[in-house]
Design brief:
Length: 440
């Protein structure tokens, strides 16, 4: 606990030294989230090019805390500046799709009332695996999205209606990738197991994934877009294998849902969860983060109630930042990251949502044509997901609770005795970290 406080203090001091105006407010009616300027030597990133975060990073000089603290906000800022016709901010400053509202399982009467008030049906996501649906409505012309949401909630106070929030990755890889060896024949590990991934696209052409069994699904429900650096890196930690590199479950089947087509918005994530439930995938990794959303919360609740385990990164907005989701929803396994010395990443969020800690820096991931060092809670989460997927062979509430409890008993207790808001139940997956230097 003392170390984490020290790290946080140093981080705050570094931020202050970087820019006294780092927490300036956005002009106008909507407040802006805390933001940091681009660091010297860095490049601005978006959700589609996170893998090119820092061009000067190398395995010997890995990504630093300040590289990630503010990355989510920079992603949001750039998307908003790029297309203000498509995006807007909610009253808390979070990015949403303009004029779009999501509803969880609305009845026919509610939709009929909405139509008479000028709402337009944009999309309907039928979640076959969950036997429910998520509907996206457009707000009436001339009405703000916030006022339209309030109006819908007034029609039915029990309705799970919210903005269509946009979610972003929770980590980054360096750009100095080491060459990749030829893909190895899969080791005799975990044949027949299934694990799920909700992220940006996965590049199955990467040497670490060529021999992997990856079932991809795009945002349209049919095909996937080309792989992204973030999605490919996370996938490699789950099922990758090439030379000395391997993921936690190199023989498992990966069901990878690409939610980045257009935007990683609430309805796309909900649709991906429905697909994974229908495919009977017991453990699902989500290395994307965003604000609380009533619609997404109900979908997550339905998934976990059926005995599926959702493992999610807690995020890198800083130890005192508000919780990020889906990691902070009840029943979700929230994962923080630690460095090779077992110290919590100073940029990682803290709180009761932290259930486990896992390696989250100086670990090798697939990148470009080879491998790169990665940092962030994004990359700690798949290690925990893989460990749980090795034990949970099917969706079952009792079995899911048992495997999570078993892993907690095996965790290395760090920080305050027992479960704490920094390391959760403790460190797991330490042996799963592949040192980037070992692949040279």
């Amino acid at each position: 606990m003392t170390n984490s406080i020290l790290h946080a203090a140093l981080l705050v001091a570094a931020v202050a030294a970087t820019s006294p105006a780092a927490y300036a407010q956005l002009g106008g009616a909507l407040p802006r989230l805390p933001s940091l300027p681009s660091l010297p030597g860095s490049v601005t990133t978006t959700t589609t090019d996170t893998g090119r975060l820092l061009r000067q990073a190398t395995p010997e000089s890995p990504l630093a805390p300040l590289d990630l603290l503010g990355l989510r906000q920079r992603n949001i800022d750039e998307l908003w500046r790029r297309d203000r016709n498509r995006y807007e901010r909610d009253p808390a400053g979070e990015l949403v799709l303009r004029a779009e509202l999501t509803l969880y399982a609305p009845d026919a009467a509610l939709l009929a009332s909405a139509r008479t008030l000028g709402y337009t049906l944009l999309r309907e996501r039928v979640l076959d695996g969950l036997e429910t649906r998520v509907v996206v409505l457009r707000a009436p012309a001339g009405q703000t999205t916030a006022s339209a949401l309030a109006q819908l909630r007034a029609l039915d106070p029990s309705l799970a209606a919210d903005f269509n929030h946009v979610y972003t990755p929770s980590g980054a890889t360096d750009a100095g990738a080491t060459p990749s060896p030829a893909p190895a024949a899969p080791a005799d590990l975990a044949p027949g197991l299934r694990v799920g991934l909700i992220d940006a696209g996965v590049d199955t052409r990467h040497p670490a994934l060529r021999a992997a069994d990856v079932r991809r699904r795009g945002c349209t429900g049919t095909t996937s877009t080309p792989g992204s650096p973030h999605g490919t890196a996370v996938a490699s930690l789950l099922v990758g294998q090439a030379g000395a590199f391997h993921g936690v479950l190199p023989r498992a089947t990966l069901f990878a849902a690409d939610v980045s087509c257009g935007d990683a918005a609430v309805d796309a994530i909900a649709d991906a969860l429905g697909w994974l439930v229908r495919a009977q995938v017991p453990v699902i990794n989500v290395s994307m983060v965003g604000p609380a959303n009533r619609t997404l919360e109900q979908v997550v609740r339905a998934v976990t109630a059926r005995g599926h385990v959702i493992v999610a990164a807690v995020g890198n907005d800083g130890p005192a930042a508000p919780p990020l989701y889906p990691a902070a929803y009840p029943g979700v396994v929230g994962v923080t990251g630690v460095d090779p010395r077992r110290r919590v990443l100073p940029e990682a969020l803290q709180g009761p949502q932290v259930m486990f800690a896992a390696p989250g820096s100086a670990l090798a991931v697939a990148s470009g044509e080879g491998f790169a060092a990665a940092r962030g809670t994004s990359f700690a989460a798949p290690l925990v997901a893989g460990l749980l997927a090795a034990r949970l062979h099917g969706a079952d509430p009792a079995a899911a609770a048992r495997v999570v409890a078993d892993l907690a008993r095996e965790a290395i207790d760090l920080g305050a005795p027992g479960r704490d808001p920094v390391y959760g139940e403790g460190l797991v997956g330490e042996r799963e970290r592949i040192d980037p230097l070992a692949l040279r």
